[in-house]
Design brief:
2 domains, six-stranded mixed beta sheet, alpha/beta, 10 strands, four-stranded antiparallel beta sheet, Rossmann fold, single chain
């Protein structure tokens, strides 16, 4: 679990996060949602230790506050973290296999055989075809690139998985596949997964625990099931902006 307590973060005198508190639970897909400029990315980067807040605490296992970590302890924390970036961020000059091996070569003490066995396991877990292992990222589809990025993110068996707009640039069918893969891996390995997203399909499909930010403040927190019955006006305006989701809400409320 990650507990965010009364976090405040400003840039050049402008407050971006204002007294934000929330719990992000193990074994669940925890989502951060909100309009552009609401503070989603800043909150995620603060939880990653990339931004230092002026106020508050971020507690991980054993009530360790990462805002007080030394550089050495922060490096140790980052070894417990997997990250999935918006654009997959695969190394263009490396093959699929080399991309997944990279974190192991950097941070593990495994033998070459053990590293390859672990990489093969992760690629198989995300259903990457064997014939793609020696291909370059440019030679596989966008959906496959996301799969490889997920395999690389989990190769060190992280306790925490951060995903920044994981469905960016994907078609709806592929997005659904990636969503369910993230959900399955989260539950299977009891990972504390945090997803920064504005994709309403993802929110309604896999949002176990959702934090809604507005103007840098915590506006609402609940599950995807709670969304359909919420009376929070700001959340309704954000989530049910499209006619499709308005229809879904009306249908659920009529039951």
């Amino acid at each position: 679990m990650i507990q965010v307590k009364n976090i405040k973060k400003s840039f050049e005198g402008v407050t971006v996060l204002d007294d934000v508190s929330a719990d992000f639970r193990d074994g669940e897909v925890n989502m951060i949602i909100g309009q552009s400029g609401s503070g989603k990315t800043v909150l995620m980067k603060t939880m990653l230790g990339l931004h230092k807040p002026e106020q508050g605490a971020i507690l991980i296992e054993n009530n360790r506050d990462i805002t007080k970590f030394s550089e050495k302890r922060m490096r140790a924390y980052h070894r417990e973290v997997g990250t999935l970036f918006q654009g997959s961020a695969l190394f263009d000059s490396m093959t699929v296999m080399q991309n997944v091996l990279f974190p192991l070569e950097m941070f593990s003490r495994m033998s070459d055989a053990q590293m390859r066995e672990r990489a093969l396991f992760c690629l198989n877990r995300v259903n990457m075809p064997e014939h793609t292992y020696d291909l370059m990222p440019s030679e596989i589809s966008g959906g496959q690139q996301k799969r490889v990025a997920i395999a690389r993110a989990i190769v060190l068996n992280p306790k925490y998985l951060f995903c920044d707009e994981p469905n960016s640039g994907l078609d709806p069918k592929t997005s659904l596949i990636i969503d369910r893969l993230i959900q399955d891996i989260t539950r299977e390995y009891n990972i504390c997964t945090i997803v920064n997203s504005h994709d309403m399909n993802s929110i309604m499909e896999i949002g176990d625990n959702i934090l809604f930010l507005k103007n840098g403040k915590k506006e609402w927190q609940g599950s995807r099931h709670d969304i359909c019955s919420t009376e929070n006006e700001a959340l309704n305006d954000f989530v049910f902006a499209s006619n499709l989701f308005k229809t879904i809400k009306q249908h659920n409320n009529a039951k």
